[in-house]
TrEMBL record:
Residues 1-206 form the PSD13 N-terminal domain. GO terms for cellular component: cytosol; nucleus; proteasome regulatory particle, lid subcomplex. Keywords: Proteasome. It comes from the Eukaryota. One of its GO terms (molecular function) is structural molecule activity. One of its GO terms (biological process) is ubiquitin-dependent protein catabolic process. This is PSD13 N-terminal domain-containing protein.
């Protein structure tokens, strides 16, 4: 069953295999026949991919809610994973309050469990970060996104997902209130997904801030001002961002000074 699960996950994870509702048909006509024999977390990995393959978000929501109702014997970890899929769909439907309530309820359960699989934390922090991405504030998104990266094998994400995540976390780090430790973002492999892309300037800006390099900071903004000043997240915090680089420049100067 383990080998079959891996084969199914690899097949479903390849988006080129998807045709209309063929993933759901595969689940309904094949996977559901032996789902109780699968490892619970491998099972929820499979049904998660299937559930997010629907074009209609309401269909996805009904699918996940039906799974939760019909799988009451699943482990708490597996149930939380499915609930996090519901959160993602609720956010797509614009039901932010419902999503927040579900996150809070499941968060209370999650942090009382022992020996939790990294998959559960990955799905929880993914959902939490998506929630903060919609409602803010940027520093809370930044915190949740870093936790998501901690518990996730980034290499398994698609190039598009890596690029989007790198863009979002860079914007949050730059604009987020009270964020001065850019080393946390730089230390993650995700930031390199910006290289050789239209948003490579964000990579340069992060490094300029981290180094307190006012000249490079100003040059980077000047070279990319049409994009920079069209970003609501950056424009709304422009004065605070300038204060950040000045403060970090002063801190770096202080550290570089000789004790004498």
């Amino acid at each position: 069953w383990h080998q079959l699960s891996l084969v199914l996950i690899n097949f479903l994870d390849n988006k080129s295999n998807q045709r209309d509702n063929n993933y759901y048909e595969l689940y309904k006509g094949f996977i559901s026949l032996f789902s109780n024999k699968l490892n619970p977390l491998q099972y929820v990995t499979i049904v998660s991919i299937v559930g997010h393959s629907f074009n209609d978000h309401l269909e996805s929501l009904n699918y996940f809610e039906d799974l939760i109702k019909s799988n009451s014997a699943l482990s708490e970890e597996a149930k939380i994973c499915l609930q996090m899929d519901v959160v993602i769909v609720l956010l797509k439907l614009g039901k932010l309050i419902d999503a927040q309530n579900l996150l809070e309820t499941n968060g209370d359960i999650l942090f009382k469990l022992q020996s939790i699989d990294s998959l559960v934390f990955s799905k929880y922090y993914k959902s939490l970060s998506e929630c903060y991405k919609l409602k803010g504030p940027a520093h809370e998104y930044h915190k949740a996104a870093l936790m998501y990266i901690t518990y996730t094998n980034i290499d398994k994400l698609s190039s598009e997902d890596k690029y989007e995540l790198a863009t979002d976390i860079a914007l949050a780090a730059i604009s987020g209130e009270g964020i001065y430790n850019f080393g946390e973002v730089i230390a993650t492999p995700i930031l390199k997904s910006l290289l050789n892309t239209p948003n490579a300037w964000l990579y340069d800006l992060i490094y300029a801030l981290n180094n307190g390099d006012v000249d490079t900071f100003n040059k980077t903004i000047e070279l990319n001002k049409s994009v920079y000043f069209n970003s609501p997240a950056l424009v709304s915090q422009h004065e605070s961002i300038k204060q950040k680089v000045v403060l970090l420049s002063l801190i770096n100067i202080a550290f570089e000074r000789s004790p004498n």
